[in-house]
Each structure stands twice: as structure tokens, then as C-alpha cells.
Amino acid sequence: MNEFINTITPFLHYHRYIFAFLGALTEGTNIMLLSGFLYRLGIFKFLNVVAVLSLGYFINGYGWFVIGRFWGKTVLEKWGPHFFLTKERLEKLEDYFIKNTEKTLIITRITYGLSMCTFIIAGMFRTKAKKFFWCNLISSFIWVLALFFIGYVFGTSYALLSKLVKLVAVWLAVALFIVIVLIAMFFV
């Protein structure tokens, strides 16, 4: 097992930005938190990792948009009635979405769990490419920075906790040494 870890660790470190990009492209949230944590520990460079994460998450948004553009209506027509999505409700949703496109795209992109559905709907309702581009770009950058910062705070907490544990361990060792000396003196 140690041989495997010793082999894979340099590979992961060398290609860390590629893995961060692929993680943001496919998973997103946890990778951004982990990247902030690892940045705090000195593994990443700030501008590089934020750029890579933002690009991956931005492309992720376009993936959902394309799915909605080409297959969204078909899926809704087939499965919508099973989820109480009647034609009237879809029309109301479309009216709301058209009136509030920018606000809806940005707010849902920076809300955990809602962006995928909203971007599919944006594609399905034929949102203009330029409008979608800017909303996706701005909201992806905001979300990446927010999660990166949370990960950074966890990294700071980890670093402080590590120092605290070392300090406590040293004092426990000193206390244990004193107790052993006192017990030895008592018996001698």
C-alpha cells in the first residue's frame, strides 16, 4: 500500500490543476471546498486554481444548458405529468423565467443544488446565448470564490488545530515525564 501511495502522490501533485478542473467540471462544490483547503496548506497557487475552477464550473453550466436546449422539452413532455408539471404550469414557469432570466440564473447558480435544473430550463426556454454567457460567467466566479473561501477557512482551522494538538501533546509528555519522575522518587 505504501508503494502505491508513494507512486500516486507525486502524480496527483504534478497534475493537481487538471484534477481541479475535472472536478469542477463534473462535481463542483466539494472540489472547490477541497481546493480552498489545499490552497491554505500551500498545494495550489491562488490565481491558477481559481481560474481553473471557474473555467470548469463555467463549462459545466454550458453542459446543462445544452442538455436543456436539445432534450429538455422531450423529457418534460414525457415525464412532466408524473411530477404534476401540466402545460399551464410550464407556461407560467416560462413566463416567469423570461421576465426574470438574469436574476434567476445568477441566484440559482449560487444556490446549492438548483443550478442544474435551472440551466436545463434556460436551455429549454431558448435563453439568448449572450445573456446566458454573462450570467453563467458571473455566477460561476462568485460561487467558486465563496466555496474556495469556505475551504480556506477550514484549512486555517486545520492548521490551527494541528498546532494546538502538537502543543497539547508536548505538555502532556512533560506532565507524564514529571509524574514518572515523582513516582520514581517516591519509590526510591
In short:
By secondary structure, this protein is mainly alpha-helical.
Structure notes:
- This protein is mainly α.
- The chain is built from eight helices and no strands.
- The two termini are 48 Å apart.
- The model has no long low-confidence stretch (mean pLDDT 82).
Let me know the average pLDDT. Answer: 82
Number of contiguous helices: 8
Order of helices and strands: HHHHHHHH
Structural class: mainly alpha
- How much is the radius of gyration in Å? 25 Å
The end-to-end span amounts to 48 Å
Shape estimate: elongated
Oligomer: single chain
Q: What are the segments in which pLDDT stays under 50 over at least 5 consecutive residues?
A: none
The largest pleated sheet is described as:
none
Instruction: Give the amount of beta strand, in percent.
Output: under 5%
**Record field, number of beta strands:** 0
Helix content: over 70%
What is the topological layout?
Layout: H1 2-14, H2 16-26, H3 29-40, H4 46-79, H5 87-99, H6 101-109, H7 115-124, H8 129-187
Helix pairs in contact: 2-4, 3-8, 4-7, 4-8, 6-7, 6-8
Keywords:
8 helices; single chain; 188 residues; 0% strand; mainly alpha
